Amino acid sequence: MNQERLVKIIEDLQECIGDIEECIEILQGNKENKIMIKLSKSSLRQLFVSFHTILEEFTSIMLKEMKKYKIGMTLSDSLFVLKDENILDQELFDFLEKSRLLRNRISHRYKEPNHEELLDHILKYKSNFKKIVTIAKDYLKV
Asked: What is the mean pLDDT of residues 94-118?
């Protein structure tokens, strides 16, 4: 596995998750600052989409390492392979599928989730974001 690329993916995931957490802090504790709330809501949407872009890159290198990568594979297809290979457990797979669908609604601008729906999803599954980083770190060669 390309270790340099994996390190960059892990760094990007951690930075993205940290930025998501900062947005949540602002949204939960800064009710009177309308500009900060507006910017944080917008940033949260973009960071959520960015997380999934990084996730796609991670799944791609994982599948290439396992010799299961095919050109044109969707993220959904990739997640099924990772679940079948026991890299993702059922709970994490379900979270990623829900997140992927939410990301698509944001990115493709159909039935876009409102801010509350996105925030509720992120808060409900907050620990699962970090589980992806843990899985990625398991593939680092020390």
From this structure: 92
